[in-house]
């Protein structure tokens, strides 16, 4: 009698080390080829018990590939699914409500990439304050006749406003400590003990926008945060302040941001995320001299890619092994999730080849 194994479908790993971690596990790992015929991919997905989800970036350049995002239709069609996971902190590529209704566990990895994203956010602050990119553009365009036109500012003693104090936001606060900045934070889930530990002052969103010299967005995209920052919020900012985001584009209103930049209502912006990714070359935000932009690369470092891959593969091993494999440090709710998955596990159709 052939032994059967849980099947895990994935589009890509952030680093090949994930495959090495899973090689010794009793898991049938199958890669999706988004350019392959749909029938082949759906055959894999419909037989899968776990899905390491494709991202919007993965599917953006391939016609029809958006059907492989973990939306309600995919969840309903793939009745064998026990869990879906996203690499990194963001899980907006997963329809959490559809998964909840279907009894499918949702997982992310918020810790491994935090250092990379926090450093990128700090890099934006330094670039904008010191006018590094602006100066580089000016120098390449021809002789700089008056250096004073490129005069920047310092971080020392300025006020930093952080929206979302998760792993990334918390690490950013730590990285900014040597600059002696005053740190304000807006996070509905921030308690007094954590605020005191980080040395931040919890405030309402309106106060943060009004008082900060640098507004950093590091929160996830959820129903609570979508459209969080609009015209009123940008209008409240200082004319000398900078807006920076390494979160997700839909957290802020791009049209409102563009108007604030064009009118001089704010000094500039550092953007790693957009509503449409990749953004069009003629995106008006990319035409602004006071914008520094990167193509959603804040979390892409050699170290982060490897760490996320190891964490992702280890997470899948834990999910399919059940609560006995969960580290002692895991919370009771995670252990309960694993027990629920374990109770549902039935692998009648998958064989290790």
Structural write-up:
With 353 residues, the chain is an alpha/beta fold. The chain folds into 2 domains: 7-108 and 302-344, Rossmann fold, CATH 3.40.50; 114-289, 3-Layer(aba) Sandwich (Rossmann fold), CATH 3.40.50. The chain is 38% helix and 12% strand. The chain contains 14 helices and 12 strands. It has helices at residues 17-23, 38-46, 56-60, 72-77, 96-102, 114-130, 132-141, 167-176, 192-198, 205-211, 231-236, 254-263, 302-321, 332-344, and strands spanning 7-10, 28-31, 50-52, 83-85, 105-107, 159-163, 182-186, 201-202, 214-217, 242-245, 268-271, 291-293. It has a 7-stranded parallel β-sheet with strand order 8-7-6-9-10-11-12, sandwiched between helices. β6, α8 (167-176) and β7 form a beta-alpha-beta unit. α1 (17-23) runs parallel beside α13 (302-321) and α6 packs across α8. The longest helix has 20 residues, at 302-321. The two termini are 14 Å apart. The model is unreliable at 324-339 and 342-353 (pLDDT under 50).
Shape-level CATH architecture of the largest domain: 3-Layer(aba) Sandwich
Instruction: Report the sheet-strand fraction.
Output: 5-15%
In DSSP terms, counting alpha (H) and pi (I) runs of 4 or more, how many helices? 14
CATH topology of the largest domain: Rossmann fold
Query: Strand order of the main beta sheet, please?
Result: 8-7-6-9-10-11-12
When the domains are counted, the total is: 2
Q: What is the molecular shape?
A: globular
Number of strands: 12
Would you state the CATH class of the largest domain?
Answer: Alpha Beta
What are the segments in which pLDDT stays under 50 over at least 5 consecutive residues? 324-339, 342-353
Sheet having the most strands: 7 strands, parallel
Structural class: alpha/beta
Mean pLDDT metric: 89
Q: How is the quaternary structure best described? A: single chain
* Distance between the ends: 14 Å
